[in-house]
Structures are given as structure tokens and as C-alpha cells.
Automatic annotation (TrEMBL):
InterPro entries: Ferrochelatase (IPR001015), Ferrochelatase_AS (IPR019772), Ferrochelatase_C (IPR033644), Ferrochelatase_N (IPR033659). This is Coproporphyrin III ferrochelatase. The keyword Secreted does not apply. Its main location: cytoplasm. The keyword Cell membrane does not apply. PROSITE patterns: FERROCHELATASE. It comes from Paenibacillus oenotherae. HAMAP family: Ferrochelatase. Pfam families: Ferrochelatase (PF00762). CDD domains: Ferrochelatase_C, Ferrochelatase_N.
Length: 310
């Protein structure tokens, strides 16, 4: 049996716990600045279109944390204890670290429910967790990316293969890999985000043996600075002009069903494709897929520098 417990801080973007929490959530994203009534109404309408007033989205992350705990327990029973920390909702990243400290945790591993590293995404989670851990005397190591983990690629390859079969009646089909856009300035910073996404996409396409694919972006923020493109809505227009009848979207930058998938793709992009006379389908999200849970677990164990002390 392990001599002591290693904490695992499982971090993600976060989502409101209910429709009533949307304004607080949006205000936190805007760094304390409340959204305008128009902005709040638009985001509320998006959530309502997805969940119809019933709010199960937080459960996705809860189940992933529980799934990772189970996968870790199968590997080394009693060794790890998972804690949740969200970027823009409670429990915040700092709350998760405080919960570990309250339980007497002195060593921990942090991991984000996002396979690809950017200083603007995963890097910001790590910064907040590290600062809080250092303040509380917790030694914490981090998994920064796992975008080419064999089990992640296997899980995505299986989903893309099934998706291509389902949309094969609408040939010719274009396979579009997508991820959340970020400001273009990350390219000047030599940020690995774009390169890692392309590497994942190429590995999955090779795994399924499908060469007719390209990468596109989605869900860009509404700021004055330029964001990475082209956006998927523009890409759909381009695909239509080239004579494609079907599109399969593989949002490899996301790991669960949430607003950017359920609204931006399932509602907005699908409607745009229909207007263009095309069929658009997307792959099933990873959520608690066993291969994804094992990807996370193995990535955590790889950062456990204290395991030799067991």
C-alpha cells in the first residue's frame, strides 16, 4: 500500500451549475466586468437552445473526474485522490488546491482536460495552480500535454472511423478537424498549440486511412485582435464550392459535450451546412471513454516523481 496519498488536480474551463449562474460565470470570464444585457441574453439563449433550461453540462466534468479516479485506482489502489479545479466556475482552481491542503496533501500532479498545450489555455491553468500550491506548501508537477498519447489517438480514430461510415451516404465527404481558436499572436510566441493540433489530426487521419481532411477553427472570441482562422463557417462555404456533399467534424481540441460542441457545431455549423445543401455530422465526444480515462491516468502517473518512495 502507498505510504501517502498523491493529490491529482483535474482542471477544466468550467460551466455554470444552472441557468441562474450564467451571469456570474460570464462576469468571471470577462475578468470581473459584467456582460451587457445583450451579451448575457445571447449566451443565455445559447445555453437554453442546448439544454432547454435543464442543466446537465457540469455533470460531464464531474463524471470525467470520477472516471479518472477509477482508472487511477485500478492502476495503484489508494495512491491518488482527485480534486476538481475550474478556471471560470466553482470550485475554482485555487479551491481545488485548498481542498488538497486541507486534506493534508503535500505532493500533487495537475492535469487539464485538454490534450493540447498553449500558454493561453493550459499554461494559464498551470500558472494559477502552481502559485496556489507554492503558497500552501504543496509540491506540484504538471502534465502539460498528451496530444499524441497512443490511447487518445486510438479513441479518436475509432470515433472518426464510425463517423465516416455514418456520413458515407453523402459522398464525397470532407473530414474537418477543429479546435477552439486563439488570438493569432500565439504564432509570434512560438506557441505549440497549432502544431500539436495538426499532429493529432494527422495521426488520427492516418489511423483511419482517410486522406481527404483539413484543419479549421471554431468558437473564436469577440475581441478586436485577430483570431486564428479560417472559422468553420467559412470553411464550410469553401468545401461546398469544391463539390463536397458531406462533412464530418472531429473537434479534437475538445474532450466532452459542452457549449462549443453542442451549440457551435451541432446547431450553428449544422444549420450553415444545411443552408449550403450539405450534410454535416460530428464524431461522438470522448467524455468518459475508457481509453481517454486511461490516457489521463497514465499521463498523471508519468509525472508522479514520488512513486519510487512507495
Amino acid at each position: 500500500m502507498p505510504k501517502r496519498t498523491i493529490g491529482v488536480l483535474v482542471m477544466s474551463y468550467g460551466t455554470p451549475e444552472s441557468m441562474d449562474g450564467i451571469e456570474e460565470y460570464y462576469t468571471h470570464i470577462r475578468r470581473g466586468h459584467a456582460p451587457t444585457p445583450e451579451q448575457l441574453a445571447e449566451l443565455t439563449e445559447r445555453y437554453d437552445a442546448v439544454v432547454g433550461g435543464v442543466f446537465p453540462l457540469r455533470e460531464n466534468t464531474n463524471r470525467q473526474v470520477a472516471g479518472l479516479q477509477a482508472a487511477l485506482d485500478r492502476t495503484v489502489p489508494g495512491r491518488y485522490a482527485c480534486y476538481q479545479g475550474l478556471k471560470h466556475a466553482r470550485p475554482y482552481i485555487e479551491d481545488g488546491v485548498e481542498a488538497m491542503a486541507a486534506d493534508g496533501i503535500t505532493e500533487a500532479v495537475g492535469i487539464v482536460l485538454a490534450p493540447h498545450y498553449s500558454v493561453m489555455s493550459v499554461g494559464s491553468y498551470v500558472k494559477r495552480a502552481r502559485e496556489k500550491a507554492e503558497a500552501l506548501g504543496i509540491a506540484m508537477r504538471f502534465v502539460e500535454s498528451y496530444h499524441l498519447h497512443p490511447k487518445l489517438i486510438a479513441a479518436l480514430t475509432e470515433r472518426v472511423g464510425s463517423g465516416l461510415e455514418a456520413v458515407s451516404y453523402a459522398r464525397p465527404v470532407k473530414l474537418l478537424f477543429s479546435a477552439h481558436s486563439l488570438p493569432e499572436r500565439i504564432r509570434e510566441m512560438n506557441d505549440p498549440y497549432e502544431e500539436q493540433l495538426l499532429a493529432t489530426s494527422a495521426a488520427v487521419a492516418a489511423g483511419v486511412g482517410f486522406v481527404d481532411w483539413q484543419f479549421t477553427w471554431q468558437s473564436a472570441g469577440r475581441t478586436r485582435e485577430p483570431w486564428l482562422g479560417p472559422d468553420i463557417l467559412d470553411t464550410l462555404q469553401e468545401v461546398k464550392e469544391k463539390g463536397y456533399r458531406g462533412v464530418l467534424v472531429a473537434p479534437v481540441g475538445f474532450v466532452s459535450d459542452h457549449l462549443e460542441v453542442l451549440y457551435d457545431l451541432d446547431i450553428e455549423a449544422k444549420a450553415a451546412a444545411k443552408e449550403l445543401g450539405m450534410v454535416l455530422e460530428r464524431i461522438e465526444m470522448l467524455n468518459t471513454d475508457i481509453l481517454y480515462m486511461e490516457t489521463l491516468a497514465e499521463s498523471v502517473v508519468s509525472q508522479d516523481e514520488w512513486q519510487n518512495e512507495i
